[in-house]
Amino acid sequence: MAKEKQLGIWIDRLTNSIVNTISGDSLPTDVIEVTAQDLKLITKSRGWKFN
Questions:
Q1: pTM attached to this predicted model
Q2: What is the DSSP letter of 47?
Q3: Gap between the Cα atoms of 40 and 11, Å rounded
Q4: Residue from 43, 28, 31 nearest 5 by CA
Q5: Residue 23: predicted pLDDT
Q6: What is the per-residue pLDDT for 37?
Q7: Strand blocks (E) in 1-51
Q8: Where are the alpha helices (DSSP H) in 1-51?
Q9: Cystine design at 20: which of 5, 24, 25, 50 (Cβ 3.0–4.6 Å)?
Q10: How many CA atoms within 13 Å lie on the side-chain side of 39?
Q11: 46 — phi, psi (to 5°)?
Q12: What pLDDT score was predicted for residue 18?
């Protein structure tokens, strides 16, 4: 049997995509699980803009 996982995210409103709250633009969005290897590549110097 597969082990259940939980995500610790904050949802301020339900949409089908990421929405720019200033312009109202809707951006195509995929939610995927990252691996430890992926996390090594996610850095500010490579363009990561979220905290």
A1: 0.36
A2: T
A3: 26
A4: 31
A5: 93
A6: 92
A7: 18-19, 26-27
A8: 36-41
A9: 25
A10: 4
A11: -100, 10
A12: 85
Which residue type occupies 23?
A: S
Q: What is the pLDDT along the chain (51 residues), one digit of tens a residue?
A: 667 777 777 777 777 788 888 898 988 888 888 899 988 888 889 888 776
Q: What is the pLDDT of residue 1?
A: 63
Single-letter amino acid code for the residue at 41: L
Structure tokens at 26: 């809707």
The token pair that represents 18 in the structure block: 């990421």
Distances (CA, A) of 26 to 3, 9, 47: 33, 19, 20
| Phi, psi of 14, rounded to the nearest 5 degrees | -90, 125
Look-up: residue for tokens 């339900």? 14
